Amino acid sequence: MSTQYQRGLAFTEEEIFGRGSPGRSGVDFSDGGFEDIADPAKMLPAGYVRGGLEGFPELSEPEVVRHYTRLSQWNFGIDSNMYPLGSCTMKHNPRVNEAVCRLNGFTDLHPYQPDEDCQGTLKLIHDLGRWLCEITGLHSATLQPAAGAHGEFAGLLMVRSALQKRGDARSKVLLPDSSHGTNPASAALCGYGSVTLKSGANGKIDLAELDRLMDEQVAALMVTNPNTLGIFESDIVKIAKIVHDRGGFLYCDGANLSALMGKGRFGDMGVDVAHLNLHKTFSTPHGGGGPGAGPVCVTEELTPFLPTPMVVKDGDKYKLDSGRPHSVGRVHGFNGNVGVLVRAAAYILSMGPEGLREATEAAVLNANYIKARLKEHYHTPIEGNSLHECVLNDKYQNEHDVTTMDIAKGLIDRGFHPPTIYFPLIVRGALMIEPTETEPKETLDDFCDAMIDIAEKAKADPESLKQAPVNTIRRRLDEAHAARNPELRCTLCS
Amino acid sequence: MNFPEKLLYTKDHEWTLIEGDIAVVGITDFAQSELGDIVFVETPEVGTKLNVGDSFGVVESVKTVSDLYSPLTGEVVEVNEALVDAPETVNTSPYADGWIVKIKMSDTSETESLMNVADYKSLVKK
Amino acid sequence: MRFIPLTEKDRKEMLATIGVNRVDDLFADIPAEAKLDRPLNIPGPLPERELLNNFSMLAFMNKPVSGERSFLGAGAYSHHVPVAVDQMLLRGEFFTAYTPYQPEVSQGTLMAIYEFQTYTSALLGMDIANASMYDGASSLAEAVIMAKRVKKKNRVVISGLVDPAWRKVVETYVQDLDIDITTVDGVNEGVTNIDELSIAANGSSAVVVQYPNFVGCIDDLQAVRRVCDEAGALMIVATSEPVAMGVMTSPGKLGADIAVAEGRSFGGSLSYGGPGLGMFATKQKWARQIPGRLVGKTNDVDGKPGYVLTLATREQHIRREKATSNICSNQALCATASAIHLSLLGKNGLQEMALKNMTAAKYLAGKISSLNGFELAYKRPFFNEVAIKIPAPAETINKKLAKDGFVGGFDLSKTYPSMGDSMLFCATELHAKNDIDALADALSGFEV
Asked: Do A480 and B63 touch (CB under 8 A)?
């Protein structure tokens, strides 16, 4: 039943620089009928004319297509196989999304065209914002932030502005020790210091600790719910009360919204501001690291502070509104990663209310199934009910000198992308597994079989795991060498 | 793991060798082994004035970064320039070639608050 | 639901393995007051066919520009992107991959990004470049913040001829970072006033100019370099149209310490402004100060060359509140697209593309300024955009152009009231002589 990994052809491929033959190109241009061809030497000031583009390739289209096709074959995507990166929500990227976002009505729209020319895109942005507010139980949204961290920044700026308006400037944010690194980095960008909140033994926020640290200098508590252990903060309503009673705001990192759609809403839990990751929960592709989109949903109280321009509905027309005196300002040069917003809107419409709830339930069922199948083979460092992801570690395998890194590389040899490893930081040797709802049961079983096989190999033949991966185009890479002697570009090119 | 008798230690896993009013400072064998392959050492400028506990630099491995804290009050009089090109020396020779800074102490009595090797060994055991 | 494979039979078996009766039991930790006891009030589900129809209708509500009939640039330019670029991006191994944290199965993304870093640093004439930022505007904001890290001074000087939207983003980014912004004018001359810049630069960490600048002219970067040397400030050069680098001397060669750009013109589309592509380049000596991800070259255990994410200790996931930036997700796929586009263009193609832009813009400038009542706002060199004084408000003219099926230029009078009625016209390789003649015909009704 298990899908065995097979080796395929992998081509050797050199970097593209300096390749090809003089005179070759992969593009052509029409002459345009101009008689007077510009001469840079005459048109530009002395010293501003470029000599040339040394080291740039000179290749025809077939050569370039082959180069990037070969590179793609060195990559692993969700299309290749299960990609259970915890907190990253590597779900299937529906192909219809790619079709609709490429309609030229969307792609060939200039951001400075008048609003009446852009009603389709403006309506889409407006409606998507409404849907995200309904899903999160919050009041209004900005879709300008280009990624989760960008959303955190915008969200915390709004908190800061709201506090300033109250005449209550504060100096720091509270963060659980299981939080994403972007949280403290975003806080710093807003001029806030960070104070770490030590999690309780159950992996959740410790109310006594919160009570101790939540003082009048705390602008916000930033939680992730469910947290990065995949555990729901069941005291969230009490947490919100403590924070609000002392004048702070409750920020929720929506990275794990996949566990809650249609089941529970941030707003109903007392959250004031939350960013979402459309490239996680709402199926838009990660693209090897981006582009994403990090919309921020807020309560009515924080609404005046949303970034500008805002898309607003005026009668039956949509328009960009820049006249918002309390706004934190603009966070993107134009209107955010609009192409990503189109994909996410298509996903929500494909799914509908029942579909989103079903996705959440399947994601949670899949994670719990994996946990149930693996708990005898891998240590579960923190007891608790998992939602859409589960955290294991390498404690049992350490007895044979096998680490989380070896387990991850062993999974690669068995045809799976590894889970998130060594995060959250509060678990030593963490393996954070998020299968998502788009994996069939057969694949979940294959994955568990591979994990169990690795656990057995750890006892019987640990050396085989130390050697892994052996089936890839490259084996373990020397990261220390890369950092000691940074070689960040090809020097042929200038 | 090696912890020389003649050195004094801190809870931040640094060692100090006292030579008159000069304190040579580096990180311990335990610290370098916890960090793994060290790829970069950031050192302060000569002349920097330090109080006890001031952060004066960082040691970086591939996936972690660790602040260096001054064990004593004084002024940086020399830094180990060789670490710029060969940070791995901290891994291979933490107590000799891998030293990081020399501090001219303003109060030699502060050395009394540092740990001896026995105390440090018991700290590492925890 | 077509994206969810689980069947009822699967669910039953899985629940039995887990040891619970119902899926809802798995959500027991959500307190009653936070549980949603009704369906979400959102539309859908739509079958694929209906979804396609629905989005076709939405797209139809827009009036997209055909590049040949649009003369609007101002930071977002219409270009022809070879079809092969998007076809390559649609390789699932590229677009459905995550950040290349596991290098052995991510060599494709890593090499493509390494190529992007190489192209970026070469085009901008800098030692190194990062793996991308959100857009040109946020790249500029990060550059300003980096300059404070390097120079430890709390003031930055920005030319008023830097894209106004980018300046707004910079203001947003630095508002709580104890960085003051001094803006230096120059719009009446079309170039940043170097004397004022020199006075303002004293005691600042950086001086920011745009190249070519927002009104299409070319600032005296050599003079800006001298100003920076005198003030001990970093020179930051921003570029919204890096196609110009096919024929123009790079910012690095002209003295930039940090060069940032909006790279959408390579491999991207207008898409109402996003996704964009932030390019960020600087000198090798500041490699550890740079924001965002970096790909580096190394070897595997068998000695074969390969690529990894490197110098990661600068980043948020390791250094948290002391990170050089909060950025995590960047614009990797757009960076890949730009590398593919630049590879197709190659050495001669990029130069030719740049020349085509310049040729069309030169013709446009001559043709429009020959109309009575239209004149060049500046008698200065330009690349593919030119500021033109017009005989009626831009809004009036653009409405008429829209009726004739054109998208007119950017209204400069709103940003720079002292310019009066004036417009920034852009021409690219998409425009033929006929297209510009047709524009001139449409404008001739406004002649005075």
From this structure: no
Q: Which residues of A touch B36 (CB under 8 A)?
A: 480
pLDDT digits (tens, 9 = 90+) for B74-117: 999 999 999 999 999 999 999 999 999 999 999 989 999 999 99
Q: List, for residues C30-61, the tens digit of each pLDDT value.
A: 999 999 999 999 999 999 999 999 999 999 99
Decide if A484 and B61 are in contact by the 8 Å CB cutoff: no
Rounded CA gap, C407 and C438, in Å? 12
B62 touches chain C (CB under 8 A): yes
Beta bridge partners of C262: C278
Calculate the alpha carbon distances from A183 to A119, A214, A424, C327 in Å.
35, 17, 13, 10
Same-domain status, C72 and C88: no
Six-digit token string for B63 = 């996936």
Residue C303 CB partners (closer than 8 Å, separation 6+): none
pTM of the predicted model, to two decimals? 0.97
Q: Do A222 and A135 lie in a common domain?
A: yes
State the chains in contact with A (3 or more Cβ–Cβ pairs under 8 Å). Answer: B, C
C373 touches chain A (CB under 8 A): no
Between CA C140 and CA C256 the distance in angstroms is 13
B chain contacts of residue C313, beta-carbon cutoff 8 Å:
40, 60-65
ipTM for the predicted complex: 0.97
Tens digits of residue pLDDT in C386-424? 999 999 999 999 999 999 999 999 999 999 999 999 999
Residue A25 in any domain: the answer is: no
Closest CB to C316 among A47, A182, A328: A182
Asked if the structure places residue C25 within a domain, the reply is: no
Do A326 and A362 belong to one domain? no
The residue of chain C nearest to residue B66, with distances taken between CA atoms, is C319
Q: By the CB < 8 Å criterion, does A479 face chain B?
A: yes
* C312 touching B (Cβ < 8 Å): yes
A422 touches chain B (CB under 8 A): yes
Residue A477 contacts B, CB cutoff 8 Å: no
Helix%, strand%, coil% for chain C, nearest 5: 45, 15, 40
Please say which residue of C290, C319, C341 terminates a domain.
Answer: C341
Q: Are strands A390-393 and A317-321 parallel, antiparallel or unpaired?
A: unpaired
